[in-house]
Amino acid sequence: MNQTIHLYTDGACSGNPGPGGYGAILKLPEGEQELSGGYQHTTNNRMELMAVIKGLEALPISSQVVVYSDSKYVIDAITLGWAKKWQARNWIKPDKKPALNPDLWQTLLALCAYHRVTFVWVRGHSGHPENERCDRLAVAASHQRNLQADDISLPIAEPTIAKQGNLIADPVSLPNVDQPWIYLAGPLFTQAETTFNQHLAEQLRVAGCSVYLPQQACAGVTQPQALYDICITGLKGANLVLVILDGTDADSGSCFEMGYAYAKGLPIVGLRTDFRGSGEHLGLNLMLTHSCKHLLLTTLDATAINTKHVTYLTMGEDFLPKLLLILKQLVRL
Fold it and tell me: Is 116 helix (H, G, I), strand (E, B) or coil?
């Protein structure tokens, strides 16, 4: 779709929380499409989010979209970057309180990465024709029988410290800021690798770092273009890329992410793991290691590695304190 699509949205809730509904109007080149749905027990903010999500999900291909909403909650969280910051902090706000509705924000951010979306705020109940229509759709949907369930108390992913050595919460007192963030690029071939990536991200967040974990941001997304756009969004907001180097092969995802970072002049820190059992005696992938500003290794002889900075770790050593010191030296996080 080359033409701009206009999406008008609104949400309604009686009681807040209570029965609620969403309404959306898509203005497509071939005509208009109305969307609505109701839920048994929800909130007004969730319905405002749901209206935008359902409208964007109705578009079959990546499109240029202008979204009109009377919700400052939705508009500000997207246009001011709050939602991305919450996501980077594992859905914890700067005041240490949990960000609400992480399930819906996760979905909306993925859709915004897939589509080219502009958000416009409109004043509610001020006579705006499409906004009034969306309001009527949302209210009507909330009064339907057999309303859908909406779990407004979905658990928020709380940070859990990995039991890996004697980790300390804040070994170097990194400043607690929201942006820019560390982009954590890790292989996803095995469950051990994905678990390690998640635990490392959580440990860095506890230490005060903002971390963008693409495996988390891409959860539930299957379209290749959407996956690419989500990764690019994370890389554009980063000031450092931390890459997990596992085995001697060139992980395709790491190659893409490191190539982008290298071309943009972002510092790259490589952390060596060996989940696949190839052994460091077989060497490292030099294409990847030569791109790193700093490497954390265990036993490999670094004389063949074209980088000035290598930090050695003993087998079983807790790597986090050394990693945090390196990150602090390279950039102001």
Answer: strand
pTM reported for the whole predicted model: 0.54
| Total residue count of the chain as it appears in this document | 333
Active site residues: 10-11, 48, 70, 125, 135
| Contacts (Cβ under 8 Å, ≥6 apart) of 4 | 64, 65, 66
271-296 pLDDT, tens digit each: 877 655 554 445 566 666 677 778 77
Report the alpha-carbon distance of residue 116 to residue 104 in Å, rounded.
Answer: 18
Give every CB contact of residue 296 below 8 A, 6+ residues apart in sequence: 269, 270, 271, 272, 310, 311, 313, 319, 322, 323, 326
Could you tell me where the DSSP H helices lie in the chain?
44-57, 72-79, 82-88, 102-114, 129-142, 191-206, 214-217, 224-236, 252-264, 286-289, 320-330
User: What separation in angstroms does the CA of 9 have from each of 27, 63, 111?
Assistant: 11, 17, 15
